[in-house]
Amino acid sequence: MQKKGNLMALLPIAVFLVIFIGMGIATSDFYAMPAIVGFLIALVIAFVQNKDLSFDEKFSICAKSVGDENILIMCLVFLAAGAFSGAVGAAGGVTSTVNLGLSLMPPGVAVVGLFIIGCFISTSMGTSVGTVTALTPIAVGISNITGFSMAICVASVVSGAMFGDNLSMISDTTIAAVRTQGCEMKDKFKANFLIVLPAAIATIVLYFVLTMGGTFELTEDLSYNILQVLPYILVLVGALIGINVFVILIAGTVASLIVGVCTGNIAVMDIFSVVGGGVTSMYDITVISIVVAAIVGLVKENGGIQYIIDIIGKKAKGSKGGQLGIAALISLVDMATANNTVAIVMAGPIAKDISDEYGIPATRSASLLDIFASVFQGLIPYGAQLLTAAALSGLSPFDIIPYMYYPVLMAVSALLFICLGKGGKKTVLK
């Protein structure tokens, strides 16, 4: 029997958003309050709802939700991705990858080159903030040399960073989108890539037309070791050909440690500490995923998710309407949380139910989650990406936003794919 929708079941999520956004506005810093604190408060609210269930029954619901196969696999992959990130960073992979990209950049297309290198590095490293941190100082230098607006140079870096954040096999957003929707990573990559490719090409054309004729010459040391780049290539190729992502991340971690020891960047006695440091960096998102799964379990039991589906059902016209509903849902959650991974973890289970209801392929729903979370994460002035870029360049996020063409074009491309694509068959949730 289909559960009846209940607006009040969404109260825990509403409380989290009010507290989180309220603290962000009050302190002018959306990262002043740890997200996990807000989620724990929301979990308490979820527990005191529904007097028909005992606390033991509510704990059982939470345990079943947290024990879901996709949640557990997602958490393990988060930790494996952290291990790889720690090992490859300590081995010198980040520096070599950045320098390799810059060495290959033609001097006549400076801004286009920054965008393309940002795409390459973020796809390799799986982190948009890491890409922004590595490339923004270089973008500032290129602006000073060429005379191009610093805002457009920095925006090209952030745009490239959002490309990889959306597509990278080791990005936590990709991991969350794939696991919550129940599809294979390589299949999501292929579906997602086809959607965003027109946006990337259009962005390249725009940056090229706006900055034609500029040139530059970097005087910094751009030395790199191709061995230090190989672990990234190993992970990317392995994931694309269908090797289990957990296995390929472990293999990439081992390869990074070997490269680090052979090149002298990692002492043999430090191999466990660098891996441990990377794993530790993923603790926050792993714990948040567990707590959010518990909240969603109770919200679903109380009819909150069914209420959202009912609302979308009144507006949606088949599969296309369902896809637009998923796009709207993840966009609003990301703007509220200012964290695209947390937004996907929160919205993912709801999107899964919507996709089941309207016959939307899992690869499409996963792509839409990741795409629209990245769209708004790259445009909100209080997101980590623009705040980091602004801090490193001395600009305001509002100086950079007018040149953030890629996120806007990514949204346009995704909406066109939805509207012009074939609809699925609506199914009935049992």
Task: Please describe what this structure looks like.
- This protein has one domain.
- The protein contains 21 helices and no strands.
- 76% of the residues lie in helices and 0% in strands.
- It is mainly α.
- The termini are close together.
- The chain is globular.
- The longest helix is centred in the middle third of the chain and has 26 residues.
Please state the structural category. Answer: mainly alpha
Helix content: over 70%
Strand content: under 5%
Order of helices and strands: HHHHHHHHHHHHHHHHHHHHH
**Poorly predicted sequence stretches spanning 5 or more consecutive residues:** 424-430
Average pLDDT rating: 86
Q: Count the strands?
A: 0
Q: Radius of gyration over alpha carbons? A: 22 Å
**CA-based shape:** globular
Main beta sheet: none
Provide a short characterization of the protein structure.
The chain has helices spanning 11-27, 35-48, 55-66, 69-90, 93-103, 110-125, 128-146, 150-167, 172-181, 185-210, 226-240, 245-263, 271-280, 283-301, 304-315, 318-337, 340-358, 362-377, 384-393, 397-400, 405-420.
